Structure formats: structure tokens, C-alpha cells
Amino acid sequence: MDKDRVIGSAKVVKGKAKVAVGMAIGDAKLEAEGEADKIEGKIQNAVGGINDTIRDA
Description:
single chain; 57 residues; mainly alpha; 2 helices; 91% helix; 0% strand
């Protein structure tokens, strides 16, 4: 498993947590940061998947 997949998944989880906390306390900036972290994590996870596919081929 590529390290980008692990790091990307961690960023998605971190982003979800930020969104939840932001919603709970009414902090729109924190929610936006969480959404950005989730997107960044999904992209990094996808890059890791591509790297895995290339390595396995």
C-alpha cells in the first residue's frame, strides 16, 4: 500500500472531524477547512491508488 493512501485517508478523517466540530460550535471557517482537508485527502488517496496500480503492473 502506498504511503499516499494512508496519509490521504488520515486527512479525510481529520477533515470530517473538523467539519463536525465546526458545525457543533458554529464556526464556518473550521467547516471550510475541514471540507478542504477532505478533498485534499481524497485526491492524495487517489494518487496513492494510481501509484499502487503502476507498481503492481
